[in-house]
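Notes, Module 5: Reading structure tokens.

Key idea: the token line is not a picture. It is a compressed description, and you learn to read it the same way you learned to read a sequence, by spotting repeated patterns. We will look at two proteins. The first is printed below with its tokens.
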Amino acid sequence: MAWIVLIASAVLEAVWATALGMSQGFRRPAPTVVFAVAMTLSMAGLAYAMTSLPTGTAYAVWVGIGAVLTVLIAAARGQERLTPLRAALLAGLIGFVVGLKAVS
């Protein structure tokens, strides 16, 4: 269960990071609310996962998945360019996250 919560929390990390950028310094109310709710739920899920998973592993997985999804969202929205090299590096990052799960 901790792994499922951790992955859901990592997805929420990408949501709050994207909403933070869209909030324009907290000047836009809707993205600011999405940011606050998603960040609270993401942190709560990470905290829950850390009760049964090693802190370093949980944090690395949370950050890795969140970072990759944030880049993919930005690329899908046309805000970042996803080159083949960047895609390969992101795939490598996900591979390392899967490796952490495999050895935990």
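Here is the second protein, with the sequence above and the tokens below, as before.
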Amino acid sequence: MNFPSELKYTKDHEWIRVEGDEAVIGITDFAQRELGDIVFVDINTVGEEVAANEVFGTIEAVKTVSDLFMPVNAEVLAVNDAIDASPELVNSDPYGEGWIIRVKLSNVADVDGLLSADQYKSEVNA
């Protein structure tokens, strides 16, 4: 399993990559393996402020639907259009082409409270 060290992680299995006052968010390699084949991602919060730990959308696999939780307070700026046509990108490249949303961070320092790659690895016993 892959745990890029430059990312921060949540106990809900999302990752976040900070880019200035914006960030990209997706689900972890562990999460996509647990879910299985991703068939649909539903995000209806574009343009909205979403508080940390609140649901910003859902991800649907063949056998289940899971909520997606916002790692920090942020405004949803955009959804990855590529995953509309090819949701399997979340499975094949969860940290790259399979990213889910881009956000504007309310406070960049909030990211410091999230898990490091090593902490997340311990969380999932990997």
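Summary for the second protein:
- The helical segments are 29-35, 82-85, 89-92, 117-123.
- Residues 29-35 form the longest helix (7 residues).
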